[in-house]
């Protein structure tokens, strides 16, 4: 598989920038890397970035796109920037923090599990996974494996990542930011489902009837 130089550059820069915000917020490299749980989070972040280079994720508008949903992209970006810095900063000044090192390690574990859940479906979908809400050429439904009971496992992974990141810094504000991510995330899910319903009709309706949207047993 050929790795796009542009994708590689973006992945490296964005990963370093995100970790840099956290290091800055916590007060520097010494403060950040003095916590084993945060070292684990940093390593996991780099591993996820490298793994993403071997996916076929794209920003193609494909055969048909819901362009009205593009507003979620800058919203995700703003929440992401705030999440990069604020949880670490509130950790440093001990503002709205939870517990101690045990909470950090719980956060690191959730972050790693969320990362795996985020990336697994991306590999499964291949070129069908786009940063835009779009139908790709040759688009087909995947209804088995990780998609057997859950329609949006990658988005659940994204939420678990956000919760794990917040807990790694013991940050209540980080948890609030993770919760705010649900607003653009649910809007994107609804747009995707409308597009898939229009594309696949009864096949998709039947699939929705036997699966959960985001959280098994709840939603």
Automatic annotation (TrEMBL):
Q: Name the Gene3D superfamilies on file.
A: 1.20.120.1630
Q: Which domain of life is it from?
A: Bacteria
**Sorted alphabetically, which InterPro entries does this protein's record hold?**
ICMT_MeTrfase
What GO terms are given for molecular function?
Answer: protein C-terminal S-isoprenylcysteine carboxyl O-methyltransferase activity
Instruction: Quote any Pfam family the record assigns.
Output: ICMT
Please provide the record's keywords in A-Z order.
Answer: Membrane, Methyltransferase, Transferase, Transmembrane, Transmembrane helix
Chief place of localization: membrane
- Tell me if Membrane is a UniProt keyword of this record: yes
Q: Name one GO cellular component term.
A: membrane
Transmembrane stretches in the record are: 7-32, 38-59, 71-90, 102-120, 155-187
Q: Which protein are we looking at? A: Isoprenylcysteine carboxyl methyltransferase
Q: Which GO terms describe its biological process?
A: methylation
């Amino acid at each position: 598989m050929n790795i796009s130089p542009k994708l590689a550059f973006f992945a490296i820069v964005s990963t370093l920038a995100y970790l840099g915000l956290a290091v800055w917020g916590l007060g520097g490299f010494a403060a950040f890397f003095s916590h084993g749980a945060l070292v684990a989070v940093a390593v996991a972040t780099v591993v996820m970035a490298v793994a993403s280079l071997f996916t076929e994720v794209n920003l193609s508008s494909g055969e048909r796109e819901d362009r009205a949903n593009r507003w979620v992209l800058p919203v995700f970006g703003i929440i992401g920037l705030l999440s990069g810095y604020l949880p670490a900063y509130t950790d440093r000044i001990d503002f709205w923090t939870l517990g101690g090192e045990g909470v950090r390690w719980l956060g690191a574990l959730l972050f790693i599990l969320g990362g795996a859940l985020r990336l697994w479906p991306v590999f499964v979908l291949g070129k069908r996974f786009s940063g835009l809400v779009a139908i790709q050429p040759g688009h087909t439904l995947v209804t088995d494996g990780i998609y057997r009971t859950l329609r949006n496992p990658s988005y659940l992974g994204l939420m678990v990542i956000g919760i794990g990141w917040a807990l790694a810094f013991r940050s209540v504000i980080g948890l609030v930011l993770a919760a705010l991510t649900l607003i653009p995330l649910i809007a994107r899910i609804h747009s995707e489902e409308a597009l898939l319903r229009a594309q696949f009709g009864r096949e998709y309706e039947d699939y929705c009837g036997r699966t959960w949207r985001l959280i098994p047993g709840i939603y």
